[in-house]
Model the fold of this input.
Amino acid sequence: MTDEMNRRKFLKVLGVTGGGAATLAGCSTDQVEHLIPYLVPNEDQIPGIATYYASTCRECSAGCGVHLRVREGRAVKVEGNPDHPVNRGRLCGRAQASLQGTYNPDRVRQPLARNADGQFDKISWDDALGRVAQAVSSANPDNVWFVTGNEGGSFDRFVDEWLAALGSSHRVVFEPFAHEALRHAARQVFGVDAVPSYRFEDAEYVLSLGADFLETWISPVEQARGFAASHGFHEGMGRYVHVEPRMSMTAMSADEWIAPAPGTEGLLALAMAQVILADGLGRFPTDARRLENTLASYTPDAVAARTEVPAEKILRLAREFAAVPSVALPGGAGTQHPDAHLTAAASLLLNYVAGNVGTTVVFGADQNVAGGSTYTSLRTFQETAVASAPDVLFIHGANPGYATPAAGAAFAAAQQNASLTVSFSRFVDETTAAADLILPDHDPYEQWNDYTPRVGVRSLQQPVMQPVFDTRQTGDVLLEVARQVGGLLARRLAPAGDGATYKDYLQNQWRRVQRDLGDRRPFDEFWREALQRGGVWGESPRRTMRLAASAATLTAPGWSTPEGQFTLIAYPSMSLLDGRGANRPWLQELPDPVTKMTWGSWVEIHPETADGLGIAEGDEVEVTSPDGSIRAPAYLHPGLRPDVVAVPFGQGHTAFGQYATDRGANVYRVLSAQPTEFGGVSHYAAVTVQPTGAHERMAKTEGKRRQLGRGIAQAVTLAAIHEGEAHPFHMAPAAEPPEREEHILEEVAEMQREATEYGPYAYEQTRWGMAIDLSQCTGCSACVVACSAENNVPHVGADQIRHGREMHWIRIERYFEGGENGEPLEARVLPMMCQQCGHAPCEPVCPVYAAYHTPDGLNAQVYNRCVGTRYCSNNCPYKVRYYNWFDMSTPEDPRTFAWPDPMHWLLNPDVTVRSKGVMEKCTFCVQRIRGAQHQAKLEGRALTDGEVVTACQQTCPSNAIVFGNLTDPNSAVAQLAADERGYHVLDGLNTTPAVTYLQKVRNLVEP
Amino acid sequence: MTRRVWSVLKAGGAIAVATLLVAAGAEVFRTPAQESTPTMGGYEAPVDVDTAGLPGPRQPIFYRHDIHAGQYEIDCRYCHYAAEVSFSPGLPTVASCYGCHVIVGAGNPEVQKVRDAHTNGVPIEWVEVHSLPQFVHFPHMRHVVNAELECQQCHGEIQRMPQVYQFASLKMGWCVSCHERSTYADNPERQVTTDCTACHY
Done:
């Protein structure tokens, strides 16, 4: 595989069916297709049948287990590993898009070296390895630095051993959202340096002091599952109170959203703890009494003024919190102000006095988020590097040249000072763009590795296919460098004559794992089983916690902004995280769950504030802090305190490929480089906000913000259900038809009667249907990306979104309720996809019968028959049909081509790639239905309930979607469809949808 | 050249192809004399074949279905191993060809090509004969297992073809003509569907 042509040929060998045909739409037959069989049969692969390999998602620190669906030697879909204790088969949107990293056209395709002109030249691996070995040999070992992200597994240990053998101790672990505040608090309150596990499923009362636990905080998929178990509607469902100045996506699920003065969430928690302790409400351990003096001054009355939360409310919250099993969460990255460690400490104290530590807050089962204060260790490097130039600087899995204050300026300066910077990055991100050598690593799905999401869970990664490009696993590169450098480095890691690879190192680590588990089987057997399952896991340990002496020295958190200025909140983007997802077009196009913005940055401003400043939505504003300024369009968000503005992380890349570069603003430019007391970056800043006079039409998918009485996303209070009054709103039927149309209706009715009495429609049939429980749906949008991945849905880009031409077959609609005349603001979400109407308005208007009704109740869309009149879309009341305005599927038009090589490798071969002029839509993953039916037929049996799983249902972290046969009264979906909370959207139109929504249930306080 | 041949075949049929092949200077292809081998079903494939007169595209190796499937009566599914389980029937790997041809067929220059492919690790690029557009999903396994159709019903008398050509039109009308003969209403047992989403999705 020396040159590009050979590599491509080799990969073509892997594909037998439809080789290269994936993007060729239409029926052109004048093109010769070749069928290229395998040379040697691959026992794992049967053409046309998918093989699944277990691996681990490495998009964030949560470490969810995944199954890679591999067809003809290439991975086409990521799904959750049902056995994995972290995610139990479910995934978030970032994981669903992870293959867009694997097949990213901007991946570094081979080793690169910077030449005299500052450009990158392609070099061979031998050359690259030689250069690194040469540099390491001639370097002062103590002047070799290694910066990594949160590796958290055998590779972590490997890098440490490699550096130690070389004689260097300069390892820097940098993770932008490393929960430094929570760690600091755990040290102060309990004397342990750990991030505990939060058990939502065991709590009936959830109080979040700003943690976005359904978006990015610690382990969102696992927490969403626990939260759904606690707060989804059931007898004795939990209550959830969110305390944060901004209504985040997580806060949208709250029964009560409290927006205290910025930085005072901790004060509120301290006051609650004070009440519980003083009134003896909790089941607290006896030593909690020691806190009495510390807490004495934080009475509800004392903190009411500073938090701007009435004392009665705090009192009520404290009583509610202590009455049932509860959990208090610290702040998240979106509430990481300089006193965030005090918020976190307050949350731990509150949990302690309520007796939650050890039940819902579990130490021992510590979460793997990078240890220590990662930002301060990076600062140490930066300062040292300026004083004495590093000889060699290695960078792996981190982008500090972007994700640190001033957009990485200090790191860039330090990097400039290094004699040689070697990056192992897969992409030319900001840090790598300034490197001297790039030795691209394999993608996580192409490599051998492991990851420990939390204590007691060890998750494996295995190569699921041949590498896409000429890359090498960094572990193997470091071993080869050790061999060439010789000396102690080679003796310790790669003894002479030993062709050991990183996989051997990994297996040796796993021999130790097997020993620790007391497993006496032959190692090969243990290893094979672990690979198949995706890792090994058992019960996570629990440690009993006692208050440390320093717990009593807690002080009050606070934050103040000078008069006339605003508090800027920089919060992690649900889809892009710190910016590492910005080169995945699916994630760029995924609407933010709160603002519905895509492909850019925005500044959230309260409508009243915007009024005062003369800002309209879409006006560009300049946000200026003492450290810098950014410009972005304003989004008027009612879920925000008027004295606060908010900007998400993730955009404003100056490198990182075609999808990320020069898009939006990097909010790190306005954050202070000064580390906070807990050793992190403050995500709060005091800023001024000025309109610049520019205006843009925003690329958002938001329609109306209010439901306007249409009863689309409905909710009911728990009290109403208990009183037997869960009566969903039903839209009034349309007015009586005028007389002159009556005969037409009669004719149509007769036609419909005939159609259902003859032919295949006359028989008792399956009717596929779906039930979506809005009391479980959080709006996390994982289903949107999963649908795109399953159904080859292309991205269309910001300009097309501005024209309302987004393609997502399933979308999350977000509506605001209340928020006026003193009523509390409420947000509702509703996944909207084709409702597969029984009386579908789209069908009779299609002139070519491309839109028609299948005998099993689907509103099918025959793409090859569609001529693109768009009548169906015009007639659809749900607006769930999407038109291909441009050709996203042919490389001839690079402006709109959504699958540049090798991105088209992730296309699902079971689904037609649509071409220009074709209407497309959700058909309940009909390819999965037909696939399951084929399988059942082959096995000579009937389909069982739950056998067909749609892509959106499969990934839903909170299990809100149920799919099945509505005509089978015993099916799960039929039972849910008959639920008293069930309703159909716009049912007054007599469309008889197959999708039943179950009202959201709000557990409100009794008046 | 292949591309032109293919398009003419689609448009005009076999005779035109043959003419074009000669016109384009294709050699008159002859298989070398076969050693006398026992025949099982009595059918003996012709020894000499003039490829210029054969319908269907020229393949990189003059592989003869009439010898393998006809004269030796090797089951189709021996090579097309996935036809009973998958949408795709599967193509034999070079290793499965070599499994026999490591012994038999020595001296035959066409067999030598297979041996070379195996030795050099270079896959054989067969020209696709039966091609469906990507918006059609044809499940081989349902037709072979559930419908119990003979391969020949769609692929023709493949065991008599020295060179494979497209026997059926593979157009939708041709598919439906068969499906309609045993629709649900007429034959509830078989439940053959004519629903669009059986194939188009």
Q: What stands out?
A: Chain B is about 35% helix and 0% strand. The mean pLDDT of chain B is 78. The beta strands of chain B are 126-127. Chain B touches chain A through 52 residues (CB under 8 Å).
